[in-house]
Amino acid sequence: MSRLETLEQLRERDDTFAPSDSTVARLEKLDRTVTFVPSQIGAADQVPVSYTSDPGRLLWYDLKLFASKLTKATGVFLPLRVGRDAQPYDELYPSVTNIWSCVLHTILGVNQGMFLCSLPWYLFAPVFWLILYVIFFFLINAGICRLLNGSDLKIYPTISVDPRGQFRDEYWIFMNGVSVGRGWLQANVNRLSQTFGRRVVGVHNPSDGIVFDLIQCVIQRNFSYSTSDVREAYLSIKEALLDKSIKKVVFILHSQGGIEGGLIMDWLFAECSRFQLRRMEIYTFGCAANHFNNPDYHETDGDQVTDGKCIEHIEHYANLGDFVSQIGVLNYTRVANRYMGRLFLSPDSGHLLNQHYLHTMFHLGQDGRVAENNPFMDLEVRVNYHDLDPGHEQMASFLTDRSGGVNFGSKMKFLDRGDAEKEKEAIAGQHVAFVGDVNRAVRPMVLLQSGQEPRRMFVKDFSRLWQYRNGGSPPDEPVKA
């Protein structure tokens, strides 16, 4: 057998490393549920991950995957938010900038569709006329894209954040997804900056129109194709990692930005030391990448042996009804050693960053600050081992505050193999979040102090990104320079 196996073969062999189809099916039955899947550990003796396979095979698999998920396509734009539920940062909010962006996207989409459909007819025309037609179309397309994207590769927030320079030693960078022009990227950058109280720099992945953007996504993730924005973001992150005055680099990715971010991380793993990479944190929304690496490290200091990951904190947030998540993070987390990082899965639909992800997970109150409670973060967590390997005692023991001795496991509800009554109870629940352990124990971000009574755990207790809201910071251990 070839050492490079197809994705189908890997899924058949290693389907126990991620939530199975039955787990996702149970999620679809629930009204308000979130699935949390801790990071995969991976192992050196596992077969090479399949994204290194022949690009032709990967392309063919992608085409079949897209066709099988077409029923989720409408979930990219839905739900629409109107009235009091709408916020000015939303991509489809009826502002002049958003209406102008939608008009340009419509023109680009219609023109590109007509162009591709017309190409077979020009096969019977003289080559000279075909060349002229193609050149004329791309000139028109480039002109419209220029109106949509502007000329700046980097976008900075236009709102006031961190006026006292409290976080000058942190570098936050964001890469957008498909079909995002200058106006939407500015709204993304402003929303992220306001949400986390930091200055977030946006590296623009310019849109060529929805049709051409999708084609570019397929090429990027199957042929490792890097564009100018990929190279710009790579240089910016590497400079920040080499700058000793920067103590933390936070990389936020959305949609196609996840593909580009995965390429950037592959380069950084090859060129930066583990001690530099330990200052990085990565958070994705609706990630379209087909892999996300995070190499192991093993070091010995006298009699003490330490094992871990180069990037200590990676979190993926996905909506179940999001077409891009279905063909990206939700499909490839099923393959062992393929998608490193915690996965938070919401039953909602929608792919737009501000309107569907941040609006739900980091909802802004009337005072412009992230509300302390929202339906996503307030869901109760339940640990599900139905489709996973034995060894859940490790999780129960790891859910113990080492400093205070508070055992969270005593308040967590575990679903063991073959427990039909608990399974039925879980399906009937309306406000419960599932936690599935892939390979390793999970540790909550929020720990009880010594002497406090154990309590039920919620999604916000497991989300590190949640700790950054409104200029907050999660507790960190010192990072060696």
UniProtKB/TrEMBL annotation:
SUPFAM superfamilies: alpha/beta-Hydrolases (SSF53474)
Assigned keywords, A-Z: Membrane, Transmembrane, Transmembrane helix
Protein name per its UniProtKB record: DUF676 domain-containing protein
Top-rank taxon, per record: Eukaryota
KW Membrane (keyword) present: yes
Annotated source species: Tothia fuscella
InterPro entries named in the record: AB_hydrolase_fold
Transmembrane segments: 121-144
